[in-house]
Each structure stands twice: as C-alpha cells, then as structure tokens.
Amino acid sequence: RNSEEEDSIKIVVLGQQGVGKSAIVASYFFDTFFFEPEHYETIEDTYRLVRVHDQRPVRLHIVEVGGSEELGPCRRRHIQDADAFVLVYSSVNRTSYERLHEIIDEIRTIQDRQCFPAVLVANKMDLRRQANVAKEEGQSLGQLLQATCLQTSGKVPSDGRAVFEALLHRLFSFDTQD
C-alpha cells in the first residue's frame, strides 16, 4: 500500500459457504450475534467503518465474498485489490478446512506473492465437541502462511472484534517487514 492509502484498508473475508463468515463480520460491525434459523448464502456483503488502531483512525472496507464457485470474476477482483484477508473455516467441517488450501493458492496466484497479511479463523468453537479439525492443523497452516490463528465462535461479539483487531495488528506489522 502506498502512503496515500495508509488510512484506508480493504479486507476480504473468504471461506467455504456456511462456515460463519457473516456471523464474524456482523459481530464486529454490529457488536451482536444475529441468529438466522436458515442459512442464506452470501453473494457479497460490504461494510465500511472507521476504527481506531494504535491511536490512529483507520478506514476499513470489509468485503465478505460468498463461498460459491460461481463468483469467480467478482471474487478475483476483490482478492486482487485486498490489503489483508480473514480466512475462515469451520472447526466442525473438515471440507471447509481443506477448501482453504485452494483459497490460499488462489490468493497467492492473483496477488503474485507467497505471504500476505491474514488471520486464519477456526470458527464454530461453540460446537468444539463435534470438532473434526485439530487445533494443531490450523496452527500448522497458520505458521506456513505466517498468519495469526484464532479460534472463535461467531456467536460471541468479542470474538469478531478479536479477529479484526488481530488482522490490523498483523497488517501493520507485515508492512514494517516488507
């Protein structure tokens, strides 16, 4: 990012359908959990807000892109323009964890770099008794990406805050490493 864009950050939230991306973003944006008895697939949701990070205002443009394969061109454009990523999988859905590897490869190809600012989120920890992705697997992937790893529940607003605060910290520390 150049210095003119220093105060404006585009964050793209990616993961397979049904992993709780919307719940994490909504808990951060609205500071509450919205329960929907039926899952409605997100195509694209955009949120804009200003937060203070390290005593300076930061303008966030958060884009949640649905997990559907049909969203290729739209998804590609957002990945290309992104400053940082929230990568979400469900701790109770192994396929969602495996799908993240494909998403990571897609980001690496589109952005033409191996490492990028990211937070890797194991969501639905409120269902941890049903978990079929080991914590160590997520941590291993996070180390490979040099990403911050978090375990969350989209039902807990403070977890949504923790995700985006960790991402901002990671992004600004990543910038100083470049």
Question: What this model shows, in words?
Answer:
With 178 residues, this protein is α/β, with parallel strands linked by helices. It has a single domain (7-177), classed as Rossmann fold (3-Layer(aba) Sandwich), CATH 3.40.50.300. It is built from 5 helices and 6 strands. It has helices at residues 21-30, 72-81, 94-111, 135-145, 157-177, and strands at residues 8-14, 44-53, 56-65, 84-90, 118-123, 148-151. Strands 2-3-1-4-5-6 form a 6-stranded mixed β-sheet, with helices on both faces. Strand 5, helix 4 and strand 6 (148-151) form a beta-alpha-beta unit. Helix 1 crosses helix 5. The protein is globular.
CATH superfamily: P-loop containing nucleotide triphosphate hydrolases
Q: How many angstroms does the end-to-end distance come to?
A: 11 Å
Strand percentage lies at 15-25%
How many domains make up the coordinates?
1
Average pLDDT reading: 84
| Number of distinct beta strands | 6
Shape, please? globular
| Helical percentage | 25-40%
Radius of gyration: 15 Å
Q: Number of helical segments?
A: 5
The CATH class designation is Alpha Beta
Alpha-beta content class: alpha/beta
Ranges where pLDDT stays below 50 over 5 or more residues in a row are 1-5
Q: What is CATH's topology name? A: Rossmann fold
CATH architecture group name:
3-Layer(aba) Sandwich
What profile does the largest beta sheet have?
Answer: 6 strands, mixed
- Secondary-structure element order, as H and E? EHEEHEHEHEH
Strands ordered across the widest β-sheet: 2-3-1-4-5-6
